[in-house]
Design a protein that fits this description.
Elements lengths: L1 E5 L3 H12 L3 E5 L17 E4 L10 E4 L6 H9 L7 E3 L12 H8 L6 E5 L4 H6 L4 E6 L1 H10 L4 E5 L2 H24 L3 H21 L10 H10 L6 H10 L9 H16 L4 H9 L3
Parallel strand pairs: 1-2, 1-4, 2-3, 4-5, 5-6, 7-8
Antiparallel strand pairs: 6-7
């Protein structure tokens, strides 16, 4: 299978690596022609890196892994080269200006893409690139799920039809991990950290259910699995970003949790869902 991976950051490069190891011929699109380099990980020969988005036109499937802040712009650039491929959205996040999830942006910007899925779960890119066992939820149409199983055969994939719930978990865990990182420095003690963590995730769940998510999804790999990974480890960019903010430092790299928190609050307000903890934590962090 020929696979186009759109986005060559850490997660996009890791997915390109395991797709190639699984037998796919991979075209990895990078806006600047570069990709993430992992220590002690050799790039498979079956990966072609390109700056030309047109090179993914003849691929059998697309994995879109660009940051949430650039998802709409990147999708617009790729739309003219779309040839009815199944698409797997591998970006976790919400658009901060609209509160839209990536699937909603896709429906708006690329309505012809009716076969798509969302990949989300407990995944540190460097471990995936090294071949550490990793599982994820893959929610979408049967065609997208089947494509995902063929491409990402090195991952344990749990299929689901709950796209909105899977996305809410990915967005919510980014925001909550940011909050947990901040409170690991700023909170008065462990009791306060536990209280804020629980209430913040409760608000995410309530918003998700109001959006049509299934409760079961919050207990899946994309939910509690990803939350456990991201909200307890400084290896998580969101957790580390929250720590940096609490120390008065500038977070390193792209911290999706900042955009996710803004997007969740915007969506909640539009739906009349109260999120006092998310709002208070956004204010405390000065975001």
């Amino acid at each position: 299978m020929k696979v186009g991976v759109i986005g060559a950051g850490a997660w996009g490069t890791a997915l390109a690596i395991i797709s190639a190891r699984g037998g796919a011929d991979v075209t990895l699109w990078s806006y600047d022609g570069n990709c993430k380099q992992f220590d002690d990980v050799e790039m498979p020969e079956k990966i072609k890196i390109t700056r030309e988005i047109a090179d993914v036109a003849n691929c059998d499937a697309w994995l879109i892994v660009t940051p949430a802040a650039f998802f709409r712009e990147t999708l617009r650039g790729a739309a003219k080269f779309y040839n009815n491929q199944p698409i797997i959205i591998c970006t976790k996040g919400a658009e901060s200006t609209t509160g839209n999830f990536m699937s909603e942006i896709m429906t708006n910007e690329l309505p012809a893409a009716v076969d798509f899925g969302v990949l989300s779960g407990p995944q540190f890119a460097a471990e995936v690139a090294r071949g550490v066992p990793t599982g994820s939820t893959l929610a979408g149409t049967s065609r997208a799920i089947n494509a995902g199983r063929e491409i990402l055969n090195k991952l344990y994939l749990n299929p689901s039809d709950d796209i909105i719930g899977t996305e809410m978990c990915g967005v919510g865990k980014n925001a909550v991990a940011l909050i947990c990182g901040y409170n690991s420095v700023a909170a008065g003690g462990e009791n306060e950290r536990a209280m804020i963590f629980t209430r913040a995730w409760g608000e995410v769940m309530e918003l998700g259910l109001r959006c049509g998510a299934k409760m079961r999804t919050f207990l899946d790999l994309c939910g509690i699995g990803d939350l456990f990974l991201s909200a307890t480890s400084a290896t998580s960019r969101n957790y580390a970003g929250g720590m940096a903010i609490a120390r008065g430092e500038k977070p390193a790299g792209t911290v999706e949790g900042i955009f996710a928190l803004a997007g969740l609050i915007r969506r909640a307000k539009s739906m009349g869902v109260e999120t006092p903890v998310l709002i208070e934590m956004q204010k405390k962090m000065g975001l």
